[in-house]
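W.,

You were right to be curious about this one. When I first looked at the sequence I had no strong expectations either way, so I just let the prediction run and decided to look at it fresh. Below is the sequence, 386 residues in total, followed by the output.
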Amino acid sequence: MKHTYRFSLPGWAVPQQQEYYTAMAKRGLFVEKRGTWLTRFSKGEPKDLIYRLDAAPGRNQEPEEEQRRFYESCGWRFICKADYFHLYCAHSDAGELHTDPQWQSQTLAPVKKSLRSELLWAAVEVIFWCLLAWFNFFITRGLHDELTMAEVAALTLAQCGFVLPCLIFLLIVLKLVRSIVALTGFSRYLRQIRGENIHPQPLKRFLRIQHGTSALYACIFLSLILSLFLLMPRSVPMEQAPENQHLLHLEQLEPDITVFQGTSQLGVESGQTDVINVPIASLQLDNTQLSDGSGNSPWIFQHYIHLSGPLDPGLVTQAMAKYWALGNPLAMDVPGLDYAFPDDSRAGMVELCICKDRRILFVQYLGHASDVQDVLRLAQQALTTS
């Protein structure tokens, strides 16, 4: 038997589903199974059937055997579970499944309660994400109290991009809107059952809106999953790291250094680097040189971001300098650079954050052979190399 699939209509859209399945039967497509996203139809000869939805005792629960036998004796055959309902069909000459509007309205009361709960949880989810964003700012400021809220927001967007937050925002807003539409639409249906004169929305228009919304929701969800996958950190050999033209090598700052090979207590191997490769080309590098002796070898840490979107490079550069630096670097005018924040207030430690053409590089160097001018010169050379 051949099958075809269509987007499922929302569970609350009772009259629309009944009209839709009846129209599909006249085209030779008969409902077999209704899922959350897709409904499976079997193909056959067109028939004049009518479909009705009956309230289920619980969401996605099978009907009781006694009830099924009673409905079958009245000419109504059980088809499948349909979210909050059970779907039945009969020939067009069969009597109506429900003839008492007041009793039918009472059986649908739990469905309205469930829809009201879904709307409540959707609102709670919006509040949760807002609190999570505020909590992130609060924690970051707690660890780096010199950062302003604007700098925290700019640095967060610079490192994760605008795509991921926008997708999350769109997803939760769309979910909230769908919950509101579901509750209001089902309430209209209940009022219609009670005899109020309510004009139903044309089926074709309803299908266009619902199928378009479902496709949009699916695209946003898949894009969110893909974005999360692209943001997952991974370890690669340093010579294979993307944007490696922006790397400073320890040998440049310590010409006479002997590079030791080994594994740190945290399991990090020499010559390996942790790379966060996000769509805006953010690169975090830790090319610490390890030793098997005293552990006093010089080391270097770097963080590179290529800005994308409407972000102020000066604000992001200053925020990154405050976030990563152990000291409190001050701005310096350096020819050829848009912004520079060097700091050598700690003995043996040079830290700087520089920006050129929306490319930002932070360097933290611990050693004895080079001073802040050497690090600044080599960092500027690395940043401007194409």
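Here's what jumped out at me. The first helix runs from residue 14 to 26. And, maybe more interesting for your project: DSSP finds ten helices and 13 strands in the chain.

Coffee later to discuss?

I.
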